[in-house]
Amino acid sequence: MRAWFAKQLDELRGQLVVTAASVTSSIRWATQSLLHQDLDAAQQVSAAAAEMKATKAHVEELILQLLVRQQPVATDLRLALAGLHVVGDLERMSALADHIAKIVVLRHPVPVVPAEIRPAVQRMGEVAEELAWTVTRALETDDPDAAARMERDDDIVDTLHRDMFGVLFSEWTHGVQAAVDLTLICRYYERYADHAVNAGHQVVFMVTGEAPPS
Amino acid sequence: MRAWFAKQLDELRGQLVVTAASVTSSIRWATQSLLHQDLDAAQQVSAAAAEMKATKAHVEELILQLLVRQQPVATDLRLALAGLHVVGDLERMSALADHIAKIVVLRHPVPVVPAEIRPAVQRMGEVAEELAWTVTRALETDDPDAAARMERDDDIVDTLHRDMFGVLFSEWTHGVQAAVDLTLICRYYERYADHAVNAGHQVVFMVTGEAPPS
Known about the structure:
homodimer, phosphate transport (chains A, B), transport (chains A, B), PhoU (chains A, B), PhoU-like_sf (chains A, B)
């Protein structure tokens, strides 16, 4: 029975790898659309987000069947429930990338990000993508450094987010609409990074059995 | 065994009622703090949010024990997993109310909401509170109208949220910082309402067995 459970858990991880990889692409395309007014990229993000609901339902059903078909012991249950948390976080990450893409479409062809802010936004996008990529890799293979790297990357996003408020509150010359757009976009990146870190902790737990920090 | 499960599920619902009632108070205090620069109210919101992590862990443990101590059938599992979704949403709602309170503390004694926006913000707070209250009541007693009422209230919050962008983008005279604060505050109310609706759907499912809309 334990062998069967381990095999099912592997299948679950396989599904989550594909989903995490898609969510990683989404934030890359969202940043691309944001920095280059790229409507094709924005469209790809929205298409991926539309598919996520079905993916999440599928993973939840997989976990449910996994639990129904055996007498669960506490450890197995915790692993399966970690999978639920991960797919919930991945779905939110996909939706947040889509929120960014939607602002690009709404303002097109006007650039959303003023020139002097582009490097900071690009950096935020890179670190968010790196976080999602760390989650994807950690699902595929035991990565003992994943947790530490995620903490570091999450701190970078928080710092970039804070710096942005500094710019908005002291040197801003682009009007209220651009400020509102940028406020929301930074919030979306920050939440994306947060969900990636949460998912990453659960993944480390699924792979190593090491409890996520409470 | 089914009777034991039903009893445990009742206990779980009891825990969720207390938690949902606390989250309802949080948004009321957050709105109070926002409209009256009330630091005591803000402090109550933050104290409640700090307690939520322990509450969530407790509910998750309760659900885990509930699943471990019986051979679960699919229906029971779905009910228990709905409880997990609900407590996750309630935790986020508490955190979002706290985000509002934290902005009040940051700007104190300066009012965060300009006078002409106060009625709209007050209305948003009332509807968000009403949504959380609907979730609380639906947990306590079978409420056949809960789902329809939540849809209506969620639409009201979305409309108020959209109207606010209209004000920000056309008639705004209060500078960038106030616009950024208000953008985030409206986003927090909107997310709070969204999580309430999600939780409400799961509660209706827990109570009636009627599947939440996908």
